[in-house]
């Protein structure tokens, strides 16, 4: 297999740090697992955690160990206790910020599916899809695709964390949705693979995680949100609510994205990912709201408000993401970070990697 083929499915290369915390984690991950300084991240509370580059990259670094891992990083880091403790500190900051952002949505008497429909109807986010359909130029469209690649190249994976945590109707509905997302077991129909073709047609790197270094914190936050919900069983209601909101706001924007690419002269290979979602997600939104979230709350009524919290948080962070792109373009700027941000040396003291901690991995970077 060629080097480029190897990179399609991950793991990705460790990204460049964006501040002292992420620098400490990147530096640590280059060595065999060892204890991090006990005070790392204590007292952390950036003014805006959702758009804080250092916090969001630190979370992303930790979460990715549970997906594809990082190239050359010892896989035992996934359950290293002091790294998990640091992740927990970052998660508390992130979750607190999310709850401040959306409050505690109340569940209407008509039920959780009606509550989801209300949230989606009230979603007056910036018109990113309309801009991409009507006026975005090729550079802007490529930026949008690079941002979204962080999720779409592992599409559906974060929500699959819910599968072993559910039984009954919600599980059956989630399986029905995920089966489509994974192409009914056909590689060439997996949504992640359809998106890889879009990247390829637009002349972008198709490797897993290839664009992590250039996407800003708010893009990482849209991903970290799913991982936060997915990796904590207590947040399974929020995870399903997030997926429902995702599906309920997907069909029309995807039609617009496809039309935008056609306007720019791209063929059906480039647009297939978006075209596929127009009809699929019109079906998924019904399954997600009624069968999946409704089914969950019938079995576990106490999770209703969590479902709406997850949906509201997903919509709110996506609004911030859309606003970032549109504001950047309106100001004549790229919405991406510079390609090679300077490395920031850690300001925290690091515990030296032990000389013999565990068997060295075969390919430390
Ligand atoms: Fe999909
Ligand atoms: Fe879907």
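Sequence proposed for the structure above (365 residues):
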């Amino acid at each position: 297999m060629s080097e480029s083929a190897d990179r399609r499915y991950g793991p990705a290369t460790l990204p460049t740090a964006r501040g002292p915390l992420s620098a400490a984690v990147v530096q640590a991950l280059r060595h065999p697992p060892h204890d991090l300084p006990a005070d790392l991240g204590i007292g952390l509370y950036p003014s805006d955690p959702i758009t804080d580059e250092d916090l969001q990259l630190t979370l992303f670094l930790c979460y990715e160990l549970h997906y594809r891992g990082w190239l050359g990083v010892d896989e035992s880091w996934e359950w290293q206790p002091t790294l998990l403790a640091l992740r927990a500190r970052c998660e508390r900051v992130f979750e607190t910020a999310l709850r401040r952002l959306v409050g505690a949505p109340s569940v209407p008497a008509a039920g959780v599916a009606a509550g989801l429909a209300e949230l989606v109807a009230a979603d007056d986010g910036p018109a990113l899809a309309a801009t991409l359909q009507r006026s975005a130029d090729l550079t802007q469209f490529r930026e949008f695709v690079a941002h979204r690649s962080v999720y779409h190249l592992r599409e559906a994976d974060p929500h699959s964390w819910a599968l072993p945590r559910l039984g009954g109707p919600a599980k059956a509905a989630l399986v029905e949705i995920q089966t489509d997302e994974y192409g009914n077991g056909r590689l060439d129909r997996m949504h992640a693979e359809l998106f890889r073709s879009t990247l390829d047609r637009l002349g972008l790197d198709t490797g897993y995680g290839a664009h992590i270094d250039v996407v800003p914190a708010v893009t990482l936050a849209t991903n970290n949100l799913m991982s936060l919900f997915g990796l904590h069983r207590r947040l399974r209601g929020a995870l399903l609510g997030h997926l429902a909101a995702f599906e309920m706001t997907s069909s029309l924007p995807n039609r617009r994205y496809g039309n935008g690419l056609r306007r720019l002269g791209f063929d059906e290979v480039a647009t297939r990912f978006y075209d596929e979602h127009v009809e699929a997600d019109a079906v998924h939104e019904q399954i997600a709201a009624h069968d999946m979230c409704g089914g969950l709350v019938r079995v576990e009524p106490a999770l209703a408000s969590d479902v709406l919290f997850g949906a509201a948080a997903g919509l709110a962070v996506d609004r911030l993401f859309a606003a970032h792109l549109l504001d950047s373009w309106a100001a004549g700027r790229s919405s991406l970070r510079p390609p090679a941000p300077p490395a920031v040396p850690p300001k925290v003291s690091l515990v030296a990697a032990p000389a013999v901690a565990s068997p060295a991995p075969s390919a430390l970077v």
